[in-house]
Structures are given as C-alpha cells and as structure tokens.
C-alpha cells in the first residue's frame, strides 16, 4: 500500500510540474506600445506546485488584438498608453507558424487591451452603449436615441448629408457656400441681408412701382 501511495504521489508531482509550465491567460500592464505591438508585464507572480513564486518577465513583441470585421475593413480600436491594463492569452501552438513543439509559451501571446471592473466615471450610464474618450462620447440608448457629446466640436467630411426628419438647432445656424431648398419658410424675427433680396425675380433694392395717378417710385437710383 505504501508503495502504491508513493507511486501516486510521484505521478501527481510529475503532472503538477508539467502543469506549472502551461500558461493560459493572465492580466498584465502595458509597458510600451508601437504600431500594434506591445511589451507587457504580467501582474501576478507565477506559482509552482511546491508553493514557490517568481515574477514573470516583461514579455516583448505581443500583437494587440482589436475587434475587426468584414475582412478587416471594419473594426474598433483605441489609443494604447503605458500603464493600461490588458489580458494576455497564451496560445496552445506557436504563433509564428514554426514547426517546433512549443505549447502555451510566454512567447506565443496575444494582448487584449481593457481595464478591469467598471469603466471609470461611466457607472451611471448602464442603459447606454458608449464609445467614449475623456468627456467626449457617442452613445446609443435602449429606446433608440443617438447621443453625441463633443466638447471640442464635431467635424464631418462627406459629399452629402441627408436628414429625413425634423432638424432643430438651439444655437446659431451659419453656412459658407449658400443655401437652397424647396418649400416655404417661416421666420419669427428680423431678417437682415447685406446683399439684394429677390422674390419671383423682383429685386428688393432695384424694383420700382407706380403710385396711383403719380410718378414711378421705388428703390432704384
């Protein structure tokens, strides 16, 4: 019986020793980032079956993963800075397509950038889906409303913008290349123009009209 116990303990020790060489996933901190490649320091210590622990080394040359779709022509990414938190995922095969026997190696990692826990300062908007950067954000609400907060302004570069609903502005409306449209216009307030105003081809500044039984009068000089 003692021999069986010793054999079992020996096998367990071998299995635990092998398992301690397997890396699956661990949280880390970005040390540097350049063009989609990061150097990352794992946060926890590596633990072994005998209870000992060591610090992980800084792992270089880790590809950063971003959600991408439609054959990589669509996706979402953000700015990565030293100190950002991430999740390191270690692959079961070598990621460089080599023919060696590497399994779950520290050198075969991918980095998924993202903090842990609630987003800083965003806990109150649990009914919104947000894309944010500092105080600026674009949000979709559950009832179908689009919210945009852009403290530095909104710049749109497009050949044409089509709005199919009512357009209301609470601030001043200005334009640079003229305005045209169809339908009537109702303005509650004073209309000022530095140039001429025409209606049905008749100039406001150049038209004349004839008084009853009198000479022609008008704005023409």
UniProtKB/TrEMBL annotation:
Which region ranges are annotated with the description Disordered? 198-221
Which domain of life does this protein belong to?
A: Bacteria
Domain Phage protein Gp138 N-terminal, chain residue ranges per copy: 28-114
Which InterPro entries does this chain map to? Answer: Gp138_N, Vgr_OB-fold_dom_sf
Pfam families to which the protein is assigned, alphabetical: Gp138_N
- What name does UniProt use for this protein? Baseplate assembly protein
Q: Which organism is it from?
A: Limnobaculum parvum
